[in-house]
Acyl-CoA:diacylglycerol acyltransferase (Burkholderia savannae), 370 residues
Amino acid sequence: MPGPAFAARRSLLAAGLGTALSSLSPLPCCAAPANAARGGTRGTVALPGLADAPAVETPRSRRIDVSIAGQRRRIFVALPPPPAPPAGHPVLYALDGNAAFHLFAQLARNHAARPGVDPADVPAIVALGYATDASYDMQARAADYTLAPLAGEAAAPAPIPCSAHDAHASEGNADDRANDADALPSAGAIRTGADRFLDFVEHDLQPWLAGQFAVDARRQTLFGHSYGGLLTLYAMLTRTHVFRRYVAASPSIWWGDRALVPFRDRFVERTAALDTPVDLLVTVGSLEEGAPNPDPERARRQQARKQVSSAREFVHGVQPVRGLHAECRVIAGEDHGSVVLPSAALAVRIASAPETSTAPATAASDGSRG
């Protein structure tokens, strides 16, 4: 028999559904009097002015601004409800924190409310962003998330340029914004930023967090999208020990004439097996390659970047490493921008998985899963 919690959730769902249905306009043939449903006169509820209403806040969340190497960064933290589990909280780190924080914080809260979820498995959310009210700092993220070519390889070229109009066009189109953010910076600012950024995460941020709340060092997950996905893969290849779980959503493997690939090849050559198991999930939208695009320039970029085949090829290339559980998941009907949402939900599940089991959706795969 369903328990009280299930009944409460069902009641809330029914109430919400009833509210939604009541807001629909009735058909003319069966329209009721305007005030019949409420049994009173219209306009009797005094609502306060919106400007006087309090701001919406994410429970148990904080943010701090800190200056690192001349760059003002903003760190967002959302903690699960107390008490902390004896082993500490799992932690999910999200790049592009200004855009990602509230999404991940709410997904973690939703996960905690699911029946059967152990509170000890709900992750703390740590989102890494910049001291701005904008969703993205395009120049700063490119400086932080891109890498220098491996020694002996050709220098990485500048990203594909785009016009200022393209960079800010169509704010409602997430695919436009994400692709154009990857195309803005000049080459001079993006040579060694990834290593500086990961130094900060490993040597400053993680020890600081461990002093602020109980952290389960065995369950730390890194999530990044696009350029952030590129950094996530780079971190996995060059600092595998820093995190146990990696989720790269639509990673920009194309960047710098595929400058990441030599790092992957070196990693596989030098790493027969990992001392500690690591999970890697690479996601990509099915519409990112081969889908019709009415904009000729965007169609050209899509063809050149080969997001889907590059993601599959990357995962296939790391399969020889024992102890690395890697999967490429192609998410149907999603493009470069919209793939963030299902990928974020998967990342929360992965971050919440018990340490003794392989994280969900990350069993070994040859990258062919659709």
Remarks:
- The chain has twelve helices and eight strands.
